[in-house]
Amino acid sequence: MKKITYLVAILLGIAVLFYLMLPRFLYSMVTEFEPFTFEKVYSDTSLIRHFGIKNHKTPKDYGYENSEDITFYSLLDSQKLSAWYVPAKKESDSTLFFIHGRTSNRLKTMKYLEMMRETQLDTLYNVFIADFRNSGESANQDLTIQKTYMGYKFAEDLAGGIEYLKKEKGQKKFTLYGFSMGAMTIFTYIGREDLKHDISSIDKIIVDSPLSNVPALIHDQSSSMHVPDAIFDEAIDLVNHDINGYFNKLTMADQLKDFDKPILVLQSKTDPTTPLKYTESELKKMKGKNIQTWIVEDAGHVKMYSKPKYHKEYIQRVNTFLRN
């Protein structure tokens, strides 16, 4: 009888501990991810294939011998960040700024330099390819996890990059090109008034496989794990404490409500990571905006460019959008 009592007590203790830890687990889902360094990618052949970089390690491997290694700083907390700056082949005051997503780094966006060369967009745009916090060469050397908050802190990194380009490179116009959480980074950068920035310099936006509604995505993931609403609410309270109550504003429609420049949305119906249903819901709220969309059948998540059946049309659509 005593053994049964002890066993019940142990099981109850485990259950209590689980429910005490669950809000923190959900909190970490929103706030952080494992650092993705260059070494992590180079040492894993599956990641090399996934990133689509083959044996390329820098823009010089794509023929851009004049590319520069850049150090810049996040706008509010001065986090030290790294990037490549690739000057246009003709003098230009416009920069195409690539923004990677979660569990990624600038190596993954580097392959789009092939598209720039093939379409001669590299005569019109300077290119900036950055590692944001917790990623690539911007990850802390001791690999301590830096919180990202589903793009909220990335937005401060983006702001720091744009300020650097304005002051150090004389850039005046920017096209922002974001992938997955990089898309939410763009939306949040535009929507956050506390960044005290001038968004009139943002010329266009391209988003590929966008994370378009953070609250809905996280809530649905929590529900699929059968997490009680009370536990979910407690986790979100922890997040909101850190980001000034901003969690429920992390949606495409909310952040872009005052933005009227052209937007190109690229996504697949089979995207398992940032499902199309969230983007479609946000687009319905944004009727009247200058938005172009290209929705394909079966490209998965951030794979439209790499998938042979869509590769040429992807390049054509991006090229036309950037030139018009």
Automatic annotation (TrEMBL):
Instruction: Give the transmembrane ranges.
Output: 6-27
Tagged with keyword Transmembrane: yes
UniProtKB keywords: Membrane, Transmembrane, Transmembrane helix
Presence of the UniProt keyword Transmembrane in the record: yes
Q: Which InterPro entries match?
A: AB_hydrolase_1, AB_hydrolase_fold, DNA-binding_regulatory
Lineage, top-rank taxon, reads: Bacteria
- Domain called AB hydrolase-1: residue spans: 96-233
- PANTHER family recorded: ALPHA/BETA-HYDROLASE, ALPHA_BETA HYDROLASE FOLD-1 DOMAIN-CONTAINING PROTEIN
Its protein name is Pimeloyl-ACP methyl ester carboxylesterase
Give the organism's phylogenetic lineage. Bacteria, Pseudomonadati, Bacteroidota, Cytophagia, Cytophagales
